[in-house]
Amino acid sequence: MSAEIASLSFTLLALNFNHIMTSANSEAPIRVRIAPSPTGDPHVGTAYIGLLNYIYARQRGGKFILRIEDTDRTRFVSTSEQMIFDSLRWAGLTWDEGPDVGGPLGPYRQSERTAIYREHAEILLKNGTAYRCFCTPEELEATRKQQLAAKLPPRYPGTCRRLTPEQIAGNEAAKKPYTIRLAVPPHGNDLTASTTFRDELRGNITFEHGNVDDQVLMKSDGFPTYHLANVVDDHLMQITDVIRAEEWISSTPKHVLLYKAFDWQTPRFWHMPLLRNLDKSKISKRKNPVSLIYYRDSGYLPSAILNFLGLMGGGMPADFKSTPDSIAEKFTLDEMVQHFVFTDIRVGGPVFDLTKLKWLNGEYLRALSPEDFFLAVRNSVFSDDYLRRISALMQTRIETLTQFGDLTGFFFSDNVIPPAEVWIPKKRTPEDTLTFATDQLAVLETTDWTHDALEAALKKLGEEKQWSVKENFMLLRAIITGSTMSPPLLESMIVFGKARSLDRARRFLEAQKKAAAKK
RNA sequence: GGCGUUAUGGUGUAACUGGUUAACACGUCGCCCUCUCAAGGCGAAGAGUCCGGGUUCGAGCCCCGGUAACGCUACCA
Known about the structure:
- The strands form four sheets. The chain has a three-stranded antiparallel sheet.
- It is mostly helical and 519 residues long.
- The protein has 21 helices and nine strands.
């Protein structure tokens, strides 16, 4: 009941205020978080949500927390966590509490909190809001297929929910592996048929329980799923506002049900629009560079990226200007903290359009002093580290120092376009070559960026598709370097970096497809 | 298929509690500047606000009904 009153008065506030506002339960100091999973390169989407959380916290004197959601062992990438730290710091989004900086409510890495989740799952088991499920993945998959075939929504049939205490004891005695599932009402004496929650940007959203599945909370490997871990951690870490992407709306009722099962107060939910590809689908690496590493290595400035992200979905006053004669739509992180209005965010998914980002980046570059510009060039495209690694590839290949540039231009260019005679092998058609190049890209995407892994993966692909090692490597060389002559390919790609190599390959394919379509 | 969300030029946004020819930025095109390319300056084209009804003197803003796109629909997050 008090929650209802709280949400009602919040509604009134929302209607009357068009400015920074606090909610009915504003006694609690604001605490927000981002919770990326270390499953690969740090994502622009993470930076976007990070930016919003950062601004929200700074505006209200609150805390911004970084939590690592590493509960999925199968997708875990060991180098990912450090890259997340590095790229978020590079962007200028610093956190108050996190795995590397500590804090009073840690640990901030979910893999270090498994005991906590187990205890909490136990509470749910005891109070009847969750149950053990002994179904095997195979059984689950089979019923899923049946349901799909029968055009029914795929849903857990609740088999194990009806197990008798004796059956459960028997299964446990037999050491059968099990998961723990949320018992979505109605069950026991909880007969509620739907869950309604408030999204601060959209208003109330209701889900009938018939459409909410008995979600797995604890996997059979002892790790929690996102749903359990996120609710438990948000509560324990005293998160007041959950600011996350729109894709979570559908699972929010499960989270609300969990808060209720624990008898905890729910945080406010703010679901932000999803960044989109040009075709309006959710932003993805197949259609857009999404790695923050890519933007860093390709010479984008953090200030430009943050500024551009701040443009996504609105939030800044339309007439905002740093100074009367400064250009439109250009503002700093501090200015966003100063002027950003959360309730003005548009919820239609904005297209992440590189064209405008490039313009903005150019604006920031031009605004630098000549010396700072020089230093920016010096510290990125011509950094000692980069030059040193390229030099190592060049020493045996040149007779005068100035020949250095002859073979290494591709390391310093953005646009590399190999001519047809360079990329199409003599015995292949353009179509076959493009098909193979597409396969190469797919392989590269999932391969560790080391010499041996790359070599093995590429050779394996070549064998499968009947492409000789020479054809195979020459094609990739053409795509990456634009030429038939270059320093050793794999070493070059390693120095050039995974993010940029993949982007170059992607852009090559895109350009060729476009050219083919024109004919 | 089910559920949910969203909908203003190619893209990002604006339009006070419904009120003049829907505004700004990016991009595109043209002109100027100029050894080139940018930058900069000037200008233009491009949407009648997803569609159909309704309310109103008047609707991008309100109501009803459609449509489309996107998201979710995992022992992924």
